[in-house]
User: What shape does this take?
Amino acid sequence: MGIRVINSMDFGEFVDILGNIIEKCPLIAAAIWSQRPFKDLADLEKHVFDFIEALPQSGKEGILRCHPDLAGRELQQGTLTPESQREQRGAGLSSLGLEERRRLSQLNGAYKTRFGFPFVIAARLSDKATILRELERRLDNQPAQELSTALDEVRKICHLRLEDILQSLEDPAKL
Assistant: This one.
């Protein structure tokens, strides 16, 4: 039923509801709206991922730059998107000790210096220890490899967010 609701949405509603499936990139939702009707979640995802894949490297990097630093200033100030706040809190990033926060900040800075965009990982599928380990490990990646890895993580985040949206549309009590 959720996909039928998505297919019946007008442009504004579609962008409002799906505008953050890729962090702070409502343009992607706007770009795929005209490709409705979608058969199912996989078809909807395919349109999103095809749009991303067609972007030049600078556009792909731009998508990554829309992501916040993990456990960074936006989390501390409470200015994360609701989705990112839930994801980071669920991974334990809102309850880091002083040393963990310092280490993560140091690693985030080194990562951004090396690659030019923030470290992206599907926090909902991780915990703080895994995130720190992956951040350290991925700092050794070559830039092209890391761009690909980071975009794979964006796809995982998008999938989870779309599942949440579809589930909420099937169960209006979750809206």
The chain has two domains: 2-62, 68-162. The mean pLDDT is 96.
